[in-house]
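Here we describe the complex-level prediction in full. Unlike the single-chain runs in Section 2.1, the two entities below were treated as one system.
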Amino acid sequence: MATQHSRSAARLMMAPAVILLLGWMLVPLSMTLYFSFKKYLPMRGGDLGWVGFDNYTRFVTSSSFWPSISATLTILGGVLAITVVLGVLLAILLDQPMWGQGVVRILVIAPFFVMPTVSALVWKNMFMDPNYGLLAYLWRFFGAEPVQWMSQASLPSIIMIVSWQWLPFSTLILLTAIQSLDSEQLEASEMDGAPILKRFWYIILPHLSRAITVVILIQTIFLLSIFAEIFVTTGGAFGTKTLSYLIFQRVLESQNVGLGSAGGVYAIILANIVAIFLMRIVGKNLDN
Amino acid sequence: MGRIVLDKVTKRFGDVEVIPPLDLTIEEGEFTVFVGPSGCGKSTLLRLIAGLEDVTDGLIQIDGTDATSLAPAKRRLAMVFQSYALYPHMSVRKNIAFPLKMAGLGRAEIKRRVDNAASVLNLTDYLDRRPGQLSGGQRQRVAIGRAIVREPAAFLFDEPLSNLDAALRVGMRLEISELHERLRTTMIYVTHDQVEAMTMADKIVVLQAGVIEQVGSPLELYKAPKNKFVAGFIGSPKMNFVEGPEAAKYGAHTIGIRPEHIEVSADSGAWSGVVSVSEHLGSDTFFHVHDTGLADSITVRADGDVGFRHGDKVFLQPREELIHRFDAQGQRIE
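The structure predicted for the assembly as a whole is:
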């Protein structure tokens, strides 16, 4: 885009896409802001006028607010830890030359193609059901009492299900990153006297840092709004009510659009806090 | 310190024998260059010595001890890679210090050695930069720095100058030669560039298809090439080869004559032809002479002020005593 002319032509041609994206973002955002200042109960009288910041104070003073924040962050942290650690290990494993590499790689990526609702249901009914789930059989086989996964270990169960879905994503990104590592660097470090664990720590891990940053950022965006897995498993019970699930309950179960919208604004704020926080910690990896 | 002996070293990848059994001795303090065309196995041979590849058969001795199955780090060899293989996320200082840190040296000792290497290589001002912020020549020096701090028994260079531009290459060539003069450590240097081999080496090993064609000092190889391959590979421009009745006059299947050993003139000479292309370098002029009835093209070197042009008829007079004779198998006839 060298000349003035081609620059303005480029701007003109990008305009429709930019305007569309902007509208897509601005319309729901301003509607959420608009409703959050109203008492709006669709089945119980509809629009009941402006209420100022009432919805905001009600939302945070509700007894389910702080537990929902904590559940959201626990799931986020747990899934990130599991997917990044296992993702790095799996990526290294899949990078090794082995028989049937192509098939194995496709199998590893497969969970990502399964819809969240479906995979959560499969986990809930096939594996974690305390009566006829596979894990229950396994527990009984060793003479143990089957775990009531969804009630006794509700958060770990959800973390497990979501990690299973997102592990392929992190593995895939980290695998491509590992493949871009110059083999001469590894050979050089080998000649420099670094044994295998030190090669991992000083050469491979720093090389992966940028990819890990990308994985964490992208997964954070999606995991903050995780919903289907909770809806079809615990339905928000047993301490698994996340912020997005709480908003869903306020809007659809309590039929209080205003209150839910205020919650939505809080969710936006939370997402931004987490994003800034993450960028601070890992963002320097995206420089240079 | 730094005597390397290869005894019947063999390397096979599956069924392909890359290096047939090969014997070679590299003396202490020697600057040895492995030279040959691409794919001749010179890099593989270097990697076998380094321990980055396993030998299929044979023995490698370093300073009298068997190093055949020793891990690369235990062989006390340092290698400079073609891509330099610097660690991009570490500063120059950390790059150079890495082998010392792995060896578990103390902080003060590491700092002393790194500062010392940096001053030898003119890197002191760049110690806190990342490799990505350095020029090609500086990166090359960092790679050398990382090698010299370990005080190895021998240095291995794998085509270290091939990523540099022509001017820088000449400069670095000189620096590596000076480094060798100062350290007097054994160096093994792999290149496909015969100019690098001729200018730097104490001993040149010419390789073709994994086989050593000839080992000798640069001038030995230039003056008495053992066979046609070495004769054609060493020297620039290439030696001219003439077959047929002209060669039979000298009692050989093929005769070879270097471009610098032919006199060119407008009026007299044993051979004659027409100038096709003349390349004026200022100091020298190269004429590519066609229609000689001897070979497709005969290359001749003359002084810079000899001014024949395209289409001129010229006479060529080879210097009889400098003609190399080869038999039908390409071996030298004394």
